[in-house]
Design goal:
Layout (H helix, E strand, L loop, with lengths): L4 E7 L5 H10 L3 E3 L7 H10 L4 E5 L5 H4 L2 H11 L3 E7 L2 H11 L21 H11 L1 H5 L2 E4 L5 H13 L6 E8 L10 E4 L20 H8 L2 H22 L5 E8 L5 H13 L4 E6 L7
Parallel strand pairs: 1-3, 1-4, 2-3, 4-5, 6-8, 6-9, 7-8
């Protein structure tokens, strides 16, 4: 197997693929944008002949005929090249429609007629998003999925940099906190609800702090119910995580949510990361703190 560091970036139009590729380029990757999946193997081979071993390629759904070959193509590439990471960027329809409204750009599918019947009127933006999501369903299932809904550009940059620095020789465990008021992240494999725990928000001296601040940590550490909550999740993951990863998955995303996503869920994710790092490569994502970091 050939040593390599290859990123394949796919996802919904408007979810941040171009920005992700720019971040990879800034970290030393040779990048190719919007390459049909059918040309990916030969392109990687030619780049390796030229001694290029850090490669990032963006693939989207505009190549309708070949996108169905995405999964088998990635499977074959992994037989030859070590350390291939496949990223799928997504967001809810609400965020995608909002981004297109703000930029006033046309959705790529609005230029294509093959996904719509000949007698159909020009597709609406909602129809384009729906069609693209259906076409990319299988692609998302074999990828590290990142829900960029609510992200600022700096948030996505931070997520991509964490993936680049993660230990690719191990399956990646993504631990993320979130706010229920913003919805459950679409990239979650398991979700735990921390809203049953004592809330530091109702203590004025803790309200403006986060679950990473010492005063909040001390407050929650002293609560027996909080320690039992973290311990139960840890026991569950220690037993079941190997079973999930034995299905040839290269990553697994565990989400813990609370009302505002700044106190209880953040504390729990930080505590879990310390317990699970000994057996897994762990990446932490605090969705409601990203812009503050």
């Amino acid at each position: 197997m050939i040593g390599s560091n290859i990123f394949i970036v796919s996802g919904m139009s408007g979810s941040g693929k171009s920005l992700a590729l720019n971040v990879l380029e800034d970290t030393g990757f040779f990048c190719i944008d919007n390459l049909p999946i059918s040309l990916v193997p030969s392109s990687i081979n030619k780049l390796f002949e030229k001694k290029v071993k850090k490669i990032a390629i963006s693939v989207d759904a505009r190549d309708f005929e070949s996108i169905s070959f995405f999964c088998p193509t990635i499977k074959e590439l992994k037989k030859t090249y070590r350390n291939i990471t496949v990223i799928f960027l997504t967001a809810s329809n609400k965020y995608l429609l909002q981004r297109y409204s703000e930029t006033r750009r046309r959705h790529p599918f609005s230029f294509q007629t093959k996904t719509f019947s000949e007698d159909q009127m020009a597709p609406t933006l909602e129809e384009c998003v729906k069609s693209e999501r259906e076409l990319l369903f299988e692609v998302q299932n074999v990828s590290i999925s990142i829900d960029t809904g609510g992200f600022k550009p700096s948030d996505l940059k931070q997520c991509i940099r964490k993936l680049v620095t993660a230990d690719s020789s191990h399956s990646l465990l993504v631990l993320q906190s979130f706010a229920y008021k913003n919805g459950v992240p679409q990239d979650s494999d398991l979700v735990f609800d921390a809203r049953c725990l004592p809330n530091p928000f109702y203590h004025e001296e803790l309200r403006e702090l986060t679950g990473k601040d010492k005063k909040v940590m001390n407050f929650l550490t002293e609560k027996k119910i909080v320690q039992e909550f973290v311990a139960e999740i840890n026991r569950y993951l220690e037993f079941w995580l190997p079973q999930f990863l034995n299905t040839e998955r290269s990553y697994f995303t565990v989400s813990v949510g609370c009302t505002g996503g700044r106190h209880r869920s953040v504390y729990c994710i930080e505590a879990l990361s310390k317990l699970l790092r000994k057996d897994s490569a762990v990446a932490i994502r605090h969705r409601n703190l990203l812009s503050d970091q």
